[in-house]
Design a protein that fits this description.
globular
Length: 161
């Protein structure tokens, strides 16, 4: 419940900051400076995640998540915490091989929390039938800065088509 309340406060705060930003010049908004400073580190995290997915490497995915991170894949139960996240990705990687690119639509930072909206596009090789199919998703990442590093706290995606 504590995390739910924290995330609710985060999103309300972020929304309030967004509305303020639209009415102020870029140079007068302290949140703009924060976003500018944090954006490269967040982009690096997102592209590291993309690379780990494309390599089907669970050991590269896990360090990108917080200890209590949540992975919420489409049509599957949520995986909560490192052990469940590890098992979920191991299962996914046993079923498919991704070859995708990430496109970042938005990054919003508020203190030690941020969210990122992305889109991914590419192909998926389905191991069971050796078919390659088009892959296109939109994603939402809730990120948390822990020990000076941005990590994935919550991640959800769904198909575009």
């Amino acid at each position: 419940m504590k995390h739910l309340t924290l995330f609710a406060v985060l999103f309300v705060s972020v929304a309030a900051c967004q509305n303020k930003t639209e009415n102020q010049s870029v140079n007068s908004n302290p949140n703009t400076m924060e976003q500018t400073n944090e954006k490269p580190a967040i982009e690096k995290l997102l592209f590291s995640y993309r690379d780990a997915l494309n390599k089907s490497d669970v050991n590269k995915v896990l360090p990108l998540y917080t200890n209590d991170g949540v992975f919420m894949p489409s049509n599957a139960p949520s995986a909560i915490g490192q052990e469940q996240v590890k098992a979920a990705y191991a299962f996914v990687f046993s079923q498919i091989q991704l070859n995708i690119e990430f496109y970042i639509d938005e990054i919003v930072v508020n203190g030690d929390y941020a969210f990122a909206r992305t889109m991914s596009k590419g192909t998926t090789l389905i191991h069971a039938n050796k078919q390659t199919v088009a892959e296109e998703n939109r994603e939402l990442f809730v990120l948390q800065k822990t020990n000076g590093q941005w990590k994935i706290a919550r991640y959800m995606f769904n198909k575009m088509k």
